[in-house]
């Protein structure tokens, strides 16, 4: 019996029409995670949170834990979900509590996955490995469980889900995942590296990047179909590179075309000289926190765009998020930003998103007019859908390379809400511009200070 990770089920009959093995899905997600780690801004953020240089071996080891994110799907209850006659049903997140915290089951998991070897990768083997593993399991946007919930989830019923029966052995499935990790990232196990100190910020950043990788690695229609020619491992790495470029996370192509900053008049279609504030901000070598105060109509928006372009060309940022106090203000500003990006980069500019729920637009077109994936056949339509990936759900808005939206989308990255880690990891790439900051009330100012403190860290 092949352990499944993704399945298409006919709604009427309840029968499986197609499926993807758990190992192949795990390889897809881990490949996206590993390619995300290669992006300049995200690599820089990871290294900062780790408080130590990160080698390729360190990144491969983090990717191994990304590969194990769905290990909970190995339980018998989850695998039975594709059998319409089975009365056994279970999820795959909270069900891992019994596997990790029951002494007998944990011994079996350690042996099957080879966790004893992985524990040696950390400065604190006793706790760091478990913390990172739970962070990987929590890839659906919130903690899998808290300590006070363990007794409820580590129940006799939950333990039964992990015990083999006559037709299926969960530990054999776990062993397949462990072997896949070794085949996908051999250097993680074979190359020496300094033990990793799992700081709390690094743990949070890992969780956010894994959530992002899981979204992209599960995109069956565009990037990771259930079937491929040849080995899944090298194919998945190629598809991961393609996916990051298609949705705008990899902006190296756009940066390569920006040999020098265009003239002020070309960027903004203005036959005038830049104002002093605009000249001052058209420079990448400025402090990380800038407060620009000037009269209405004095060109603060253009100054912010010029600063972004300077930082982007220098490789200091990979994105821009304009945070405004209201939806109306965001909609009014969006057209100006889109026009500037088109003037600078041409028709192949990075995707430009209006990050306002209910009014989302990508490159000026309404996101809700995207064609159904089943109807896609034209290459241009497929490319448009790929560029609009960040527009499909608000939690992905900050993954857009250039976005104009309301400030709440950024503030949600510093509040204990689902997918805060995802939003924070995406925002790490970008220059954050908070417009009309003086209009904030006490609560908004408090959250904005938290946001700036984390973003500047």
Automatic annotation (TrEMBL):
NCBIfam families: cas3_HD
Domain (HD Cas3-type): residue spans on this chain: 15-216
Family matches, as SUPFAM superfamilies: P-loop containing nucleoside triphosphate hydrolases (SSF52540)
Pfam families noted in UniProt: Cas3_HD
Keywords for the protein's UniProt record, in alphabetical order: Antiviral defense, Endonuclease, Hydrolase, Metal-binding, Nuclease
GO BP: defense response to virus
InterPro entries: CRISPR-assoc_Cas3_HD (IPR006483), CRISPR-assoc_Cas3_HD_sf (IPR038257), P-loop_NTPase (IPR027417)
Keyword Metal-binding on entry: yes
Gene Ontology terms for molecular function: endonuclease activity; hydrolase activity; metal ion binding
Leader peptide range in chain numbering: none
Membership in a protein family: In the central section; belongs to the CRISPR-associated helicase Cas3 family. In the N-terminal section; belongs to the CRISPR-associated nuclease Cas3-HD family.
Superkingdom assignment: Bacteria
PROSITE patterns to which the protein is assigned, alphabetical: HD_CAS3 (PS51643)
Protein name: CRISPR-associated endonuclease Cas3
